[in-house]
Design brief:
about 90 residues; mainly alpha; about 0% strand; globular
Length: about 90
């Protein structure tokens, strides 16, 4: 039961991070999107990319850890993600 809860939190974090990475790095938008919009965009990006990745590498727990490391490396320059992101989420929701 703890594994399911932990994986659901990881998937929520990964989908939000994919949305933030897509909006900030690829589209280079400066508009504000709330947590739910960013998570929905990240979920769509994850759903599009995951079958392609699954064709080459089976998706398992090791891939989740590599994905988290990849997201931390690319999202580190975005300061509001680590310093004030949670306060922005609480403020605007």
């Amino acid at each position: 039961m703890i594994t399911v809860f932990f994986h659901s939190l990881l998937f929520l974090f990964i989908s939000y991070s994919h949305g933030l990475l897509f909006l900030e790095k690829l589209l280079k938008t400066k508009t504000y999107h709330n947590f739910f919009e960013t998570s929905l965009i990240g979920l769509l990006i994850t759903l599009i990319i995951s079958p392609v990745i699954n064709f080459f590498i089976p998706l398992n727990d090791i891939f989740i850890i590599f994905n988290l490391i990849f997201l931390f490396i690319f999202l580190y320059p975005i300061k509001e993600f680590f310093s004030g992101g949670l306060s922005l989420i609480i403020k605007y929701s």
